[in-house]
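Lab notebook, bench 4. Still working through the backlog of constructs that have no structural model yet. Next entry is a single chain of 563 residues. Request: give me the structure tokens for it.
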Amino acid sequence: MRFDCTEEAINHVTSSEDIFALERRDIRGVTFTTFKNGPRTLRDYLELCSRHGDRDFLVYEDERYSFSEVHAAIQKLSQALVADLGVKPGERVGLLMRNCPEYPMLFMAIACAGAIPVFLNSWWTSQELEYAFAKCEAKLAFVDEPRSANLDPFAEALGVQQVLVRTASMEKVRSFWDIIDTRDDTVLPDVKVDPDDDFCVMYTSGSSGHPKGVVLTHRSAVSAIQSWLFSIQVSNLMGWAPNPPIDDDGNAYQPCTMITTPFFHISATHAGFLLALWIGMKAVILSKWAPARAVELIDREQVSRFACVPTMSAELLEAAAKMGSTLRSLRTIDSGGAKRPASQVAEIATRVPHAMPGTGFGMTETGGPGIGMRGEPYLQNPEAAGRLQPPLMEMRIVDDEDNEVSVGEVGELVLKSVTNLRCYLDEPQATSEALRDGWLYTGDLATVDEEGVITIVDRKKDMIIRGGENISCSEVSAALHLHPSVIEGMVFSIPDDRLGENVGACVYLSASCTTTEEEIKDFLVPHLASFKIPKKIWLRDAPLPRGATEKVDRLAVRAEYLG
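Model written out:
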């Protein structure tokens, strides 16, 4: 069956498949479109493992875990959290480590115990982590050895108990696995979890400086996965289905995804692990991004879906060409986190013609879903973000007075969905500014054409997106101003061929100062994660240019240094 109209395809999926039936539901005083059927919480969701039995699920280096093994491990971990570690429903538990199989097992186990996993950025400095732990009030954290060292300076003062999971060389810690292996029962602890209970806290950089904790519910997570599955069905009906996973000899192979981004990103937890669990996909976990290693694993494990930030797909193609690999098993190459250059979209179509390119725009605050496009529509319009993801998401594009703008005009993108954040953790003002009557004000400026194709044109927020990582200009600026010789400074994005954007800054120094650019960068090391430290710092001996209102003229400063 094939449809030429997207709305007809959406209506067909909604009316013909029970799992995608819709209803309107009042949640926290706001009426949303929700799915009527399917899992309600992560506890329900875990039971989907039973469909896939002994098929491969998680692959990490030489370790391999089936769906049944992951299912049992999560149940036992969840029991241990309650019985041995005293974790209670509603308590927050920190996760701070590089990617490894235990990471998704733990966040599922914590959620199934009614507690709330807190995903912490493993690249943060000790200072940044101290702020986050003080804010989220987690008293228990699962860590690897290097991240444990970053917690040591403040763990005792904040009362944080650490459980070591992996060594510095990413070897298993036997005492952690004893928690799993010594338990016999494979049932979840007897706790009650409601669909609208908090599932997790994920940190995201905000324009105000310090990272904000995005609180997402169980309903948000489950609905996000159902929304993506719904979109796949619609795309298939529109004729945008990828090639099936069948090798050159006609043999089918298990669909397989590669988790390339850290688990503290929603692209890894939701679009990676949770999506794979529902579909029965094998998931190959990278502990860190390494293009050549990715090529080896794609060929070895017959990876069919590669999802990444644009930098990664460019580096993957380059590594594959050097290694003589055609990446034959790939069927989709999806991208998010930043806009992929149009030249790269064309290159994928030419060099990997058996893999369908796709793009997606989503946020931690939207729970992952948002806007997307793949296949021929994307090849024809690579500058666009795509169409609104059906069927739960609603959209408006508004001016500064909250009036909807006309087709083709620029305005702020505003999204409403049950997948949206419940709130920012302990940030009532930030919550009220971003979330109004269920509508999320994204801070992104966009246009929409007559066909419903959305293009992101700019950002209202003072942010830099470096290889998919959000960096607050205000946070970097505040760190710069800690230097005793910096009178004033401004932080802005600079072009980067590999990462899309990088961090640039200019600083006005005191007259007697002999500080160099490298000395300022070294000064920032204890205060900022390495990826936030400016790639280039211009030093100046005059105040920054200002406009009529005496505010720093950001456009003039950027033009002065970038031309």
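Notes after review: DSSP finds 17 helices and 28 strands in the chain. The first strand starts at residue 22 and ends at 27. Flag for follow-up if needed.
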